[in-house]
Design brief:
The protein has 318 residues and is of the alpha/beta class. Helix content is 34%, strand content 22%. Strands 4-1-9-10-11-12-13-14 form an 8-stranded mixed beta sheet, with helices on both faces. Helix 1 packs across helix 8, helix 6 packs across helix 7 and helix 8 packs antiparallel against helix 9.
Length: 318
């Protein structure tokens, strides 16, 4: 296999994110919001691009000004948007967020008739699944049709073309018609997966298990040899086959935790594609996540490669 054009092709949701400017204010008392770009795979496409990778995004937006807003930001970042579909009659998704650190970040999703859940098999066939080193899919992309079938099809095509398939579990219970469908649906996608990434809660929900040890084993049995567990202020742990590796965190003062997991995934993917071992890649993920939680938003605040490497070096290295 020759050189592939893209390092990362991320697939799934995109949105305009409206983040409260009134830090600490309860939601009813918010007076203004800042407008950013968000959505798990969209954030990761920006995060990996800022780390120097060649990143493309497969998502869908409405034929509306909000879609123009999302597209303009991605183009300015250098993310390849040639595979972003317009869905006439649908709306670009939106998310509103309150910020009450350290542990309250109420989210409101506006996804009725949203464009990205209408990604279909034709959109997948128009994307370069065979020309990417790594393809990222997400749990929300599996939450409804036609995106569910398209996402499973993309994972299968990518794996058959020799790409590494990463699954970000991305559990948003309110976006599923029945949250009990999350686990069986996610496990069906893991047969094509190199790795699954999620919080302890997401891993247990995807596995249908109460304890993290049993949950990891079930996800590995479903096909994901490597399971990466994001643990917030406690760092992260990689379960690679029978090996368990903990990556220590980088303590910081928290402004907003939303976006930290996507920053983590960006750093992890960067390390994986650089050929680093899992521990070092997870530490890079921890560093990216630590930087983002000190900031106001998600995609707009993803760290750059040298910035992150300097951050790690200043704190003792990998």
């Amino acid at each position: 296999m020759g050189e592939r054009r893209w390092d990362v092709l991320a697939m799934g949701r995109s949105s305009i994110d409206l983040y409260a400017n009134d830090i600490g204010a309860p939601f009813p008392q918010i007076r203004s919001f800042a407008a950013y770009v968000g959505g798990c795979p969209t954030n990761i496409s920006v995060g990996t691009r800022r780390l120097g990778l060649r990143s493309a995004l497969l998502t869908a937006i409405g034929d509306d000004p909000v879609g123009d807003f999302v597209l303009a930001f991605l183009n300015a970042e250098g993310v390849e948007t040639g595979f972003v579909a317009r869905k006439p009659g649908r709306r670009t998704s939106a998310v509103l967020l309150g910020i009450e650190p350290p542990d309250r970040f109420p989210l409101v999703f506006y996804r009725d008739n949203c464009a990205d859940i209408a990604i279909d098999v034709d959109d997948v066939l128009g994307a370069p699944l065979g020309d990417a080193r790594l393809v990222l899919i997400t749990g929300t992309g599996l939450s409804a049709e036609p995106s569910r079938s398209a996402t499973l099809y993309a994972a299968e095509l990518a794996a058959s073309a020799g790409a590494a398939v990463f699954v970000d579990l991305d559990l948003r219970p309110t976006l599923w018609h029945d949250p009990r469908a999350f686990g069986p649906t996610l496990r069906s996608a893991l047969r094509c997966a190199e790795a699954a990434i999620g919080t302890e809660e997401e891993v247990c929900a995807a596995a249908g298990a109460d304890g993290i040890g049993e949950a990891v084993r079930r996800l590995q049995d479903a096909g994901a040899r490597t399971v990466v567990v994001k643990q917030g202020a406690r760092g992260s742990t990689v379960f690679d086959g029978a090996r368990e590796m903990h990556a220590d965190p980088f303590p910081v003062d928290v402004c907003n935790v939303l976006g930290a997991g996507d920053a983590f995934a960006s750093g992890l993917i960067y390390g994986f594609l650089r050929g680093w071992d899992w521990h070092r890649a997870a530490r890079m993920g921890n560093a990216c996540g630590a930087i983002v939680v000190t900031r106001h938003g998600c995609a707009n605040f993803m760290p750059y490669e040298q910035e992150t490497l300097d951050f790690v070096r200043a704190r003792g290295g990998f």
